[in-house]
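Schema walkthrough. Field components (list of strings):
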Amino acid sequence: MRSSSLALALALLLAACSSPASAPAGNTVKIGMDFPLSGAEAAVGQPIANGAILAIEQANAAGFAGGKFKIEADTLDDTTQGLHDPAQGAQNAKTLIGDPAVLAIIGPYNSNVAKAEIPLTNDAQLAQLSPAATADSLTIGDGAKALRQSHPDLVTFFRTCTRDSEQGAALAHFAQTLHLWHVFIVDDNETYGLDLADAFAASAKSDGLTVLGHEHLAAHQQDFKALLTKIAAAHPDLVFFGGVTTTGGALLRRQMPDAGLGNVPFFGGDGIASDDFLKTAGAAADGTYWTIAAPDVNRLGSAREFVAAYRKRFKSEPIGYSAAAYTATQIALAAIAKGIGSDGTLPARATVVADVAATKGFSSPIGIVGFDANGDTTAPVLTLQHVKAAKIETVDVYTVK
Amino acid sequence: MSLIAQQIVNGLALGGIYALIALGYTMVFGIIELINFAHGDVYTLGTFFSLAILGLLGATGELHGPFLIVAVVVTLVLAMVLSGLVGVIIERLAYRPLRNAPRLAPLITAIGVSFILQNLMIYWHGPSPLPFPQILPNPTYAIGPVQIAAKQAFVIVLAVVLMIVLQLFVTKTKLGAAMRATAQDRDAARLMGIDVNATIALTFFIGSALAGAAGFVSGVYYGTTWFFNGFAAGLKAFTAAVLGGIGNIAGAMLGGFAIGLVESLTTQLLSDQWSNIVVFALLVVVLIFRPTGLLGESLPTKA
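Field assembly_structure (string):
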């Protein structure tokens, strides 16, 4: 009795295991997505996901692979308790990997979520394209290799955004042009925030700026009076923040005037570039500068059509990463289309990875893009913005050399 | 040296908020031995109520003269009453039906209530942080080498006044005596003619009202709020209650101020990222040598 039920269980297990190996049934291709879609980061996550959704809808309207296949988005949310959660991201990646119809994943937004997902998608040899995760360690060096546990030499993670080291360098250079020589650095102690702060610190030192101090925040803090008192005593010309709006960026700026630091410029990366930052920091937001690791779509001739289509479809304004997500999705779809056999069979996941990696000279709203050997974009662009009279103004758009 | 004095002021203001929240934990634990994990969210709800009341009063910016005093008093009192009522409702719906259930059951419902409150706040104002109107003018007063901002003085003074009122209420009034009696021995209290259910509800009302006051104060002090703030603040305040001796009202105050001070001094002398570690390390050390907290549990153990 016991052994027969065990055999039955084994048979069931084998049947369950064998089905994903066979070619995906039906004529549906799925693009998995993972972004923060609820909680405080939905304000950024949703417009990014919208960019990808727009690309999918356009491909369906045009008839994907001659109309033989229908593309579906499987959109998952990596938020728990109102904030992005690496554990939830990993869970989502497992869900998407478990669905044989998923041939590529677009996402995530946060670098620490990417860190939790890359080992899984690499193991499944599933192409993952992030429009917004900017930490260097995701694609560069031994750290990136360690993330690719199963296939260290196979790059399965690609991104259409610019790396933190470029953001840090641009911000340090900009501080120099404003003659802000003495800087105090704060970060939120997460993958992205640390990476950005370290990149800024390195560039600041080589640009001849003096780093007065570098503090890492404790998680879930509401009171920054003590830290700001300490910072004020060091008399900085500039406070740099590595992190996102919700991990302390907005509150730190909001409380700076109370510590006598109201007139000191505040610098940050794309993590604080949001309307939520303006809302939370209130009047104190003025004098903040940040970079976005994507172009300002309103300044780009190549993005005009995209911006118009986005406005029409979603009745709202796209952000820079919406275009990056749109581009990432188009690249994934092009790679899938390329792999469809003459007999109409869908490509294996590994084939999609190879075709994404081989992307070169791809014409998109954010310019002519391709991927280098690490999976980084070959056309990195940065937008520098400034908060002035409670409005966001674009100062400059750089093409990183 | 003046920097250290400055950090002590920062720590006292932060500690005042922790202490007000800690009082609710310690009062509820004292009377029904429940750790009310939803208490931190009642604190955040207090800020949300204050925001709504200030909105009704039309107070969007800095206020002056009599209107400032009226707005502060009205908002504080209403936020306390509303938060207190929320506490009573929580007790009635989520804890009273489980009063004789195994200990673990109300603990789990407490966590459930915490999630419900958080999601109600998301439903109310969305998941993003919210600005809180800067109603208080904020001049800084120099006392020797130390700068005290008006907002900091407001937080510290209000916290101390509320604590003194609470202490007088608990020790000098009949209702306070009923609370102490119920905490000591519920059955004996009932035999003496004390309405135990009403007394427990009153305890929840007062504890939650103090959290509501802390919510108003934190809105004024920080100028922002967020539905998730109660999680971290509640955890720290709970730690304060345990550090001071859970069930002991003076202990909760002491614990709150102690944690605020340790946090701000750690930030100054070591680094911000160490503040939580030092606070919890201190808690462990205190509990090893004094398992009942700094001031011990003032309640006699039950037979």
